[in-house]
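It is worth pausing here to work through a concrete case rather than discussing structure prediction in the abstract. The textbook approach is simple: state the sequence, then state the predicted structure, then interpret. We follow exactly that order.
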Amino acid sequence: MSAAYQSMEHPVADHAKAVMQVAAAGTGVRLSDGSTNVIPTGRPSSLRRLEPAPRLVRRSLARAYYQGWDMHPAHLPTRYAAVYAFYREGLAAASARLAAYVAKAGGDVMDEPATAKALSGYLLRGLDCGAVDLAEVTALTGLDRRQLDALSGR
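Step two, the predicted structure:
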């Protein structure tokens, strides 16, 4: 594709990433999504150019790319902010669903073991990156780290 249309959001890039995810599923291979190539140039107005960076990080997280890389040190603050926000914003819902699953309480969604694995994995990634702490996860789910690890298959 021509340079003007190269983007992490281009449909061809999305297709390639989806094919990689399917090919790597269950193998233990961890995939990593890329970075924006837009960098600040030193002028205050160039900071606006970083606005897409956190959106792209969040987009990758929502598409199950939990690792990423950056091309410029100025991308790091936006990555940290996007990652923390992703896990903070989903904490209550993921915790409630996992607690209901473990208690066999049901709820608005009928979850099954694979979803419990995904929910506990989400909470563990939030813990591992420092966006949430164990005391709040335990308070919301009733589960300790060992139980979360077991549910996630770690």
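Step three, interpretation. The chain has a mean pLDDT of 89. Residues 3-152 form one domain.
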